[in-house]
Amino acid sequence: MMFLAGVAIGGLVCGILSDKYGRKRTLMASVLIQSLLGTAIAFSPWFLMYAILRAALGFISVSVVFSGFVLSIELVGGHWRTVAGISYLFPVSLSYITIAGIAWLLREWRHLQLAISLPGFLFLGLWWLIPESPRWLLALGRTQEVIVILEKAARANGRELPPNIDKQLMPDSSEEPTEDVNVLDLFKTQQMRKKTLCLFLIWFSVYLVYYGLVLNLGNIGGNLYVNSVLQGAVEIPAVAISIFILLKGGRRWPLSLTMIISGVACACTLPLYLFGDLQWVATSLTMLSKFCISSSNAVMPVFTAELYPTTIRNIGVGAANVSAGIALMLVPYLWHLSSVHTSVPMSVLAVFGIVGGLSVLFLPETGTAPLIETLKEEEHAARISEAEISETKRINNNCCT
């Protein structure tokens, strides 16, 4: 519970830090602190110290996830944005399988904590390999640093930069100074409010269903370690298929359908509570739901990041994570509802899967659109969209009359 409370707060705070100080600095500082906290937990002598360190670990771990994710999609362009964003989740699937094996071998929790914390120090060497986000630097007007990064990338790929690349990247002299953004900008315009509120519901629903299944493996029956391996195994093809779906079918409909199907699969388990000898059917439907919601969990961050401008992207992703964090804090208590009736927990997951999937349809498609860099571009695009809608309505009214 303390870890999940830290996650709920950390997403927003670390998102603000990442947009202010850069993706790379925030990511690497978070990796270092995460490794130190994880190691310290293994040696905590008192429960109070353990609980405090777990909350701090949750706070900083979510920064590792989202700073790294945003950096991965901002380093590339075109269809590689989709490939990089989704492939970022492959290690999550493998970790479920790996940690099940490690937990089976190391039954002492302190040994398990050290086994998953100490390897984090090895990733500090990435500081000399990973560049800062060129999009973030460009949005702040730090053009010369962008050129240095692009020159290194061109040499590594055996390409040559255009001779006038510096002029292409130079901001227009008529442009206003760099934007100073904050959390309130997520609600500044009607379009931004709509996006933000819908994403809050979507992230809450995905995390409730996803972790409602992951963190309650013991409640669906069967062997806990085997179930952990199965959940990781079904997630690998789900993530892989998501890449193909996103490249061909966009973001909006795939996210909506996978969430709805996941909810329907949870709903289909409800009649099985009347029959105690159909464990294999319940497990199969649960894995189908996990397969679909894993795809949703892969698509959702990419879709969210593409909906927000570069200058506020990490804040937007972090703010959405607050609602996800609330869902995480509720998950440990979800299965306590079985005291009312054994079917209630899966009923809750079914409802939020379906409702969350339907709410996706209120958002615009982003698959073929270039990333928006600033809030001014966002406002300009919103005005154009509203003008097009008004013109369409006017034409339809004229046709009808």
From TrEMBL:
Chief site of localization: membrane
Compartments, record wording: Membrane
An example Gene Ontology CC term for this record: membrane
All residue ranges annotated as the Major facilitator superfamily (MFS) profile domain in the record: 1-368
Molecular function, one GO term: transmembrane transporter activity
Transmembrane feature ranges: 28-48, 55-73, 85-105, 112-130, 197-218, 224-247, 254-274, 280-303, 315-336, 342-363
Topology within the bilayer: Multi-pass membrane protein
Domain of life of the organism encoding this protein: Eukaryota
Matching PROSITE patterns: MFS (PS50850)
Gene3D superfamilies referenced in this protein's UniProt entry, alphabetically: MFS general substrate transporter like domains
Keywords: Membrane, Transmembrane, Transmembrane helix
Pfam assignment, any one: Sugar_tr
SUPFAM superfamilies, alphabetized: MFS general substrate transporter
Protein name as catalogued: Major facilitator superfamily (MFS) profile domain-containing protein
Protein's organism: Rhamnusium bicolor
